[in-house]
Amino acid sequence: MIIHLVSECEAGKFGEDCTETCHCLDDVACDRVTGHCPNDTCAGGWVGEICQDRPCSEAPCQNDGTCLDTPEEGPDYYTCTCTEGWEGTDCDEEIDECASDPCQNGGTCTDAFAEYACACTDKYEGDNCEVEIPGAGEDGGSAG
Ligand SMILES: [Ca+2]
């Protein structure tokens, strides 16, 4: 008796017609029937139960970031384009707008979402404390 088994797929293929391609780590052959990779370890750029999905299918980009599969680039094999105020591989880090030290002339920076605020010294004003207040260099500003 001759039984044609799906296990006769060539290495690296699986499925009823041997048309599905395995994407296992180090090109190890997957299960010829189910497509499962040994230890469920996928090759770079492939994810999912049987390593047939691209990383973006798992929506890795947080905070409404846009995901683009970039299989040639690694090591994460996807690139997130973040919305305003967010950064990081998965757009899960809130940008510290004070990191660039935008407040001039001794002003104190306070980080906020997608913006920052400068608290200026008595002698300066402006968004970045870049404007010197006329006459502020003189003593006694409390006249009035
Ligand atoms: Ca911020």
Concise structural overview:
This protein has 144 residues and is mainly beta. The protein has three domains: 8-53, no CATH class; 56-94, Laminin (Ribbon), CATH 2.10.25; 96-134, Ribbon (Laminin), CATH 2.10.25.10. 0% of the residues lie in helices and 21% in strands.
State mean pLDDT (0 to 100 scale).
Answer: 89
Please give the radius of gyration in angstroms. 29 Å
Assign an overall shape.
Answer: rod-shaped
β-strand amount? 15-25%
Keywords: Disulfide bond, EGF-like domain, Glycoprotein, Repeat, Signal
Pfam families: EGF
Protein name: Fibropellin-1-like
GO molecular function, one term: calcium ion binding
Polypeptide structure, described:
InterPro entries: EGF, EGF-like_Ca-bd_dom, EGF-type_Asp/Asn_hydroxyl_site, EGF_Ca-bd_CS, Notch_Cell-Fate_Det. By secondary structure, the chain is mainly β. The radius of gyration is 29 Å and the shape is rod-shaped. It has a two-stranded antiparallel ribbon. A two-stranded antiparallel ribbon has the order 3-4. Mean pLDDT is 89; it is low at 140-144. It folds into three domains: 8-53, no CATH class; 56-94, Laminin (Ribbon); 96-134, Laminin (Ribbon), CATH 2.10.25.10. It contains no helices and ten strands. Calcium ion binds next to strand 7.
